[in-house]
Amino acid sequence: MPDSSPLPAASAAARTTAPPPPPPPRLTVEHLARIFDGRRVVDDVSFDVPAGEVACLLGPSGCGKSTTLRIIAGVEMQDEGRILVDGALVCDTVFRIPPERRRIGLMFQDFALFPHLSVVQNVAFGLTGPAAARRRRAAELLERVHLAHHIDSYPHALSGGEQQRVALARALAPRPRILLMDEPFSGLDERLRDDIRDETLSLLKDEGTAVLLVTHEPGEAMRMADQILLMRGGRIVQRGAPYNIYNAPVDRAAAAFFSDVNILTGRVRGALTETAFGTFLTPGLPDGTEVEIVIRPQHIRIDLDRGGRGPDPTPETGTAARGVVARARFMGRESLVEFRMDHDGSILKAVVPNVFLPRPGQALWLMIRRDRCFVFPKTG
Length: 380
Description:
five-stranded antiparallel beta sheet, membrane, cell membrane, Mo/tungstate-bd_C_term_dom, ATP hydrolysis activity
């Protein structure tokens, strides 16, 4: 008769295997710093990028994002910090793997195609192995970027958008673990950018490459990135998914980087701040603190009833305030209306869908979406 008694505890435990640990991020940057003439142009920068994701270093010119990219590429040395690829050290302030051995691809704004080489030769330039295999890999990528019909053409015969796609194919041909892109779309016609960005993003996702994109354009970062690393003065001041960065900015400058903003000012009294649009809760700030209440133009509502004292206050909008139209312009899909406010003469901007062009001098009541306001202590 077979033995049906339960297995001993030790034997059962041996059959239970722990799940494998998650893989390390494809790119890890730890406490990176670069100092020029005593100034920290890159200051304690840390982040990671998993395989198959797009991270975007976003910020104004001179904030340190391109220097960070050059250090990761290996064309510039850091003064502090280290870089790892797939958990393995690539460089610190002592150890350094040469750039050509890092399996990190580069793609820049000017494309840098070789004019004396055909399209297929450009794409295959960084490949090794038999000529037939190199051409096969190049042809495969040219098919993916819809340029197979230009395989034997030369760069001068291509448009700017086509040259950009050749440069992308060339950067991806050696199957880099990481692709660094420095303002790669800024030289393109604005009408082409969205389509080419979408095609590029699709190809990068399919290849499973970790991508670090540098740009100063918020719209580009919002469209392409899985995570945005917002830089200012050499530091990362905020990081997160595009939705979170946009809807929960860390300060006034972060909010203003993504769109026009209106600023209301006031002083805290008993955890409250009075404005022309009613009272705002400002807990945790001492009395007398000057605050700035930030509201984007698309979150200002216009009441078209010009009679009486304006609409009644509501919990959603608070008190209405009266403004006089200073200027109105149709922007294509929306209208931008500027108001001079009665209470202090300041200018507030409102964005209205479609066509709305009130005449200058017309008085209207404005309300603001309180759930879309950001309150910050005033700095500087």
